[in-house]
Structure formats: C-alpha cells, structure tokens
Amino acid sequence: DIVMTQSPDSLAVSLGERATINCKSSQSVLYNSNNKNYLAWYQQKPGQPPRLLIYWASTRESGVPDRFSGSGSGTDFTLTISSLQAEDVAVYYCQQYYGTPFTFGPGTKVDIK
Amino acid sequence: EVQLVESGGGLVQPGGSLRLSCAASGFTFSSYAMSWVRQAPGKGLEWVSGISGSDGSTFYANSVKGRFTISRDNSKNTLYLQMNSLRAEDTAVYFCAKLVSASCYGGLDCWGQGTLVTVSS
To answer: How far apart are CA A23 and CA B21, in angstroms?
Structure first.
C-alpha cells in the first residue's frame, strides 16, 4: 500500500497570512504515460463531509477560491492557502489515487492564531 | 444539483451484517465511478471501496476485502455496500462519494452526509 504522511499535524495562522501543508507519499504517484500526479486535497469542516479542493495535484475544483493552490510532483506535495480566512478553519487531507487502496493522509488541522 | 443520500446504518452486533445504500440524483449515475469512504469517531478518512462507471470493476481496502461487497444498480441510481462479518473496528460514519469520471482513478467531487454504523454487543 502507498502510505501518505502529512506535516504538520496542526498549525495556527493569523488571518490573512499564508498556510502551508505538506504531503508525502511512500512511492511516486506520478504516472509517466500522461505526466499526471494522482493526488487530491480535501477540506473537512466539523460535522460536514469532505470537500474536494484540488485534484491531479494542482487542478483546482470548480468553485474553490483561488487562494487555495496545490503543487509538487512525484512523492512530495504542498497545499497552500495564500491568505487564510476564518472559513478556512478545517482539517485538510491529501489522498493518492495512483494505486489501490486509494489511501488518505492522516490530516492537518488548521486554526486561526 | 448533485445529491447523494446514504441510508442503512445502525447498531449491529459483532459478526453481523448490514447493507448500506446511497441514492444518487442530479447527474447521470451510470457514467461515474463511485466510492465508499469511512471515518471512525474522531479519526481521519479511510477509503473503503470503489466501483467504476464503465465496466463495473471493483476495488477494496485490505481491511474489508472478503467481507464487504460494493455494487451498483444503474436503473435505480443507487450504490450499495454489503458489509458482512462486522467488527468493532468497522464502527464509523460511512460516506458515499462520486468520482470526477467513470474511472475510479480520480478525485471525489461530491459526498453524501454519511450514515453511522456502530458495531457493538
């Protein structure tokens, strides 16, 4: 199985400041034949189901604010919130869909400082 | 509007069985892969199973393989998860989710609200 790790476990950022979450996979999730990274990012607020933010590592889902961006390739990925808003308080998960089982990272909790 | 509504959760004894359903609306159900994802109380997300929208291929997490069966009825726009030989560690909220395409290899772009399964004597 591909193991996903995230860092940090939690972070607190001031409103308007940048938040950066890292995700690492135990093996590459880059499919060479199409040059796509099989990685997604999700946001989950308390009491709600997850919401897809980013897929193919850097493609923003429709309706997701442009302050959210994804980057990285191979085994190392980053989700960046360029200017944290109060409504961004949530747990963020990365997920690989390169190989079954499609594993999630343990999550990173983002709070306001 | 895309909607996914899960049902069938509840309290079941260890070793028992339960069948979850997910009623889909607002999109062409047969054209999309679907998945089940679970979340134990206070814990993170765990992908459980997926079924493609093209050839009906199925995939399972190692933790449920041989005990759970995913299926779909495209005529009823409904996804199922048959859960047998349930264990305490299967206790979780089970989410139904839609993939972005007919392939299981993609992001999950729409989720239901979830249904709680509790395995306890």
So the answer is: 32
For B84-107, b/e burial (b = at least 16 CB within 10 A) is eebeeebbbbbbbbbbbbebbbbb
Among B1, B35, B43, B45, the residue to mutate for chain A (most A Cβ within 10 A): B45
Q: Are A73 and A28 a contacting pair, CB within 8 Å?
A: no
List the structure tokens of A49: 């189901």
Residue A29's Cα: distance from chain center in Å?
14
Quick: pLDDT tens for A50-63: 999 999 999 999 99
- Tell which residue, B32, B54, B38, has the closest CA to residue B106: B32
CB contact under 8 Å between A49 and B112, yes or no, is: yes
* A71-102 confidence digits (pLDDT tens): 999 999 999 999 999 999 999 999 999 999 99
- Which candidate, A36, A31, A29, places its Cα nearest to that of A1? A29
